[in-house]
């Protein structure tokens, strides 16, 4: 039985540990054996200490047996993207310039995981400084294809059942894109819901923490443990923790109505993606989906996002650029150099349009429960020299809306193709409930067809 424990969903594993049916040590040992069998091909991890992972698991088991209160993730292993500070492991940010860096504190999200009883299994591969230049990770479905980025290792590790949960981030498409390419659930909560204290800073108006799981329920479980407020992240605020898990487990009181949004970048969707979404819309029918045109005002979002992101990269990575520009990739160096040319007027104009468009989107969410749109232009591209296009994520990242990629479609080559649902800001729980409804509807249809 222990050999199969790595397949357990996170919520089921947490319950089994809580009830004493399995131990955290057995679960972690099973995950490590899975990693031993697959890591040479997938290459998802940048730091992994087997003995330390098992000692954390034994401590989680001791706490449970002692009768002390335990957390919702007691004994459950989690992978952590290597841009989250960890006091007991290196945090190297995917660059030789930060090799061997040992933080003095945990990132807020990591400290929340520890409070919840999780085992920090290890650090997962990120692209260079969490931008575009790939790391060593390969797509677990086909190692000749990219896993996406920048949260490459987290998505691949969850997809390959090395770990049930993992942390990522998104400044453009770094959670949704690899989730789509690797065939897992990737959830990016509302901007500001999860503090970014102790996470590599790229762009304060755009950086967002994301999570990876193999089900909507597990994504909700992980994200709910991370919600909070931190003085080092001024975009967070004190608020009641939204009941993400409880709501995700519920059936909608009324079956949702989805707005199918092609978005201004529809021409960049591959032909098979356009066909797949036409079939999906047809399957859901008029009762559940209606095409919606966002209208004027969003056509320039790609440029506004680029303006903000590149200017902030120039500021955030100025020290690395000034001391060792020749050790940065061409793509990152170019972004920094363009960012140095952005004017304050253009930057502030781009930032202020975020709120203006979100006010307009409120009208959409009065009529519809969520937006239905592609997560990526197509399945994971062949080759390992890029991480694929984030263009179908850019609008929603810019606006800070909650988004989730569901592994519901498949390309003609057999690789996964994500379906993205987007909700209104601060309406994350309803988005997760609708996502679970959609996933269940598609899975039921697939089962009946089989």
List keywords for this structure.
globular, alpha/beta, eleven-stranded mixed beta sheet, 450 residues, single chain
Give the structure's gist in a few sentences.
This protein is an alpha/beta fold. The chain is about 40% helix and about 10% strand. An 11-stranded mixed β-sheet has the order 1-3-2-4-6-5-10-11-9-7-8, sandwiched between helices.
Largest sheet: 11 strands, mixed
The count of helical stretches stands at 15
**DSSP strand (E) fraction?**
5-15%
Q: How many strand elements?
A: 11
User: How big is the Rg?
Assistant: 21 Å
- SSE topology string: HHEHEHEHEHEEHHEHEHHHHEHEEH
What does this structure look like?
The radius of gyration is 21 Å and the shape is globular. It contains 15 helices and eleven strands. Strands 1-3-2-4-6-5-10-11-9-7-8 form an eleven-stranded mixed β-sheet, with helices on both faces. The two termini are 28 Å apart. Helix 9 (271-284) links the parallel strand 7 (258-260) and strand 8. By secondary structure, it is of the alpha/beta class. The mean pLDDT is 97. The chain has helices at residues 10-19, 24-42, 50-66, 108-115, 152-159, 176-182, 216-226, 244-248, 271-284, 301-316, 318-324, 330-339, 344-367, 391-399, 428-449; strands at residues 45-47, 77-81, 119-124, 165-170, 185-188, 208-213, 258-260, 289-291, 370-374, 403-410, 416-422. Helix 2 (24-42) packs antiparallel against helix 3 (50-66) and helix 10 packs across helix 13 (344-367).
Write the layout of secondary structure elements.
Layout: H1 10-19, H2 24-42, E1 45-47, H3 50-66, E2 77-81, H4 108-115, E3 119-124, H5 152-159, E4 165-170, H6 176-182, E5 185-188, E6 208-213, H7 216-226, H8 244-248, E7 258-260, H9 271-284, E8 289-291, H10 301-316, H11 318-324, H12 330-339, H13 344-367, E9 370-374, H14 391-399, E10 403-410, E11 416-422, H15 428-449
Parallel strand pairs: 2-3, 2-4, 7-8, 7-9
Antiparallel strand pairs: 1-3, 4-6, 5-6, 5-10, 9-11, 10-11
Helix pairs in contact: 2-3, 10-12, 10-13, 10-14
């Amino acid at each position: 039985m222990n050999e199969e424990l790595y397949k357990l969903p996170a919520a089921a594993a947490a319950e089994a540990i809580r009830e004493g049916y399995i131990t955290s040590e057995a679960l972690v040992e099973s995950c490590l054996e899975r990693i031993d069998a697959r890591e040479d091909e997938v290459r998802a991890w940048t730091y992994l200490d087997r003995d330390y992972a098992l000692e954390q698991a034994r401590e989680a088991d001791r706490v449970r047996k002692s009768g002390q209160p335990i957390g919702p993730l007691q004994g459950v292993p989690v992978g952590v993207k290597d841009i989250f500070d960890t006091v007991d492991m290196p945090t190297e940010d995917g660059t030789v310039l930060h090799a061997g860096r040992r933080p003095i504190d945990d990132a807020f999200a990591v400290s929340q995981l520890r409070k919840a009883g999780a085992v920090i299994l290890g650090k997962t591969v990120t692209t260079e400084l969490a931008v575009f230049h790939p790391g060593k990770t390969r797509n677990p479905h086909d190692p000749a294809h990219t896993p996406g980025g920048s949260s490459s290792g987290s998505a691949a590790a969850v997809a390959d059942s090395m770990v049930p949960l993992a942390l990522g981030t998104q400044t453009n498409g770094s959670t949704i894109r690899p989730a789509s390419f690797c065939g897992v659930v990737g959830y990016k909560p509302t901007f500001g819901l999860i503090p970014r204290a102790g996470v590599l800073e790229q762009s304060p108006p755009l950086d967002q923490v994301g999570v990876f799981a193999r089900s909507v329920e597990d994504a909700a479980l992980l994200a709910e443990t991370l919600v909070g407020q931190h003085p080092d992240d001024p975009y967070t605020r004190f608020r009641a923790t939204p009941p993400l898990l409880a709501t995700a487990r519920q059936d909608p009181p009324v079956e949702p109505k989805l707005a199918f949004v092609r978005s201004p970048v529809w021409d960049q969707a591959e032909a098979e993606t356009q066909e797949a979404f036409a079939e999906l819309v047809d399957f859901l029918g008029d009762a559940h989906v209606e095409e919606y045109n966002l209208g004027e005002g969003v056509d320039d979002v790609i440029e506004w996002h680029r303006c903000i992101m590149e200017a902030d990269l120039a500021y955030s990575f100025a020290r690395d650029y000034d001391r060792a520009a020749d050790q940065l990739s061409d793509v990152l160096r170019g972004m920094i150099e363009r960012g140095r040319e952005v004017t304050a007027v253009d930057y502030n104009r781009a930032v202020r349009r975020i709120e203006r468009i979100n006010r307009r989107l409120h009208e959409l969410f009065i009529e519809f429960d969520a937006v239905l749109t592609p997560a990526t232009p197509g399945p994971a591209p062949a080759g390992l020299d890029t991480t694929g296009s984030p263009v179908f994520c850019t609008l929603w990242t810019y606006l800070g809306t909650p988004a989730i990629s569901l592994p519901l479609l498949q390309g003609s080559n057999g690789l996964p193709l994500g379906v993205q649902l987007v909700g209104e800001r601060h309406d994350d729980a309803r988005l997760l409930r609708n996502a679970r409804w959609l996933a269940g509807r598609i899975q039921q249809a697939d089962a009946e067809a089989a």
